[in-house]
Write a structure and sequence with these properties.
The protein is of the alpha+beta class and 194 residues long. It contains 6 helices and 8 strands, in the order ααααββββαββββα.
Amino acid sequence: MTYILCPKLENYLSFYLIKKSYRYNRYERRLAILFRLMKNSEVINMDYVKYIRERVGHDSINLTGVNVLIINKDNQILLQKRGTFPYKWGLIGGITELGESLETTAVREAKEETGLNIKELTLLGTTSGEDCFIEFPHGDKAFFITIGYVCKSYSGKLSIDNFETKDLCFFSYDELPENIPRSHKVFIEKYYSI
């Protein structure tokens, strides 16, 4: 997504925010954030994790992401055999890009990883903390703060890209693969216990 700001608006907005910065409303705060992001276009136009990693190296960081439990009419859950680390079966999902809403991340990741268009997301819960720490093979360390959604309304045809996704399959609760990441199991257990 690319944003273009009219120079006249940029000058007005800059002056307005400086003049009234101590008492602007919610809408004006959003404009202020957008304005700052636009002024720092290098951040908007690059991969957010790469941008952070260039500054902190392999040190531990917090990353925010989503997992989506896509459920079919038989109450089976769609899992993805990952082609990237940790190379396990897991939920659909990924990391939120800078400025992206959680819901937009869920829709984008579902489309990228499965080919499906998802609708009507229901918040399931969150995972975070020490149980959500990952050290990647190349040394990067991250604590994941993940929001889980349930989706029972979707359209499209499953597609596998053979890079990020090696396989896609709906599983019933009794047939789940054993090598699912711990944080994903939390969401799955929570869904099936409701």
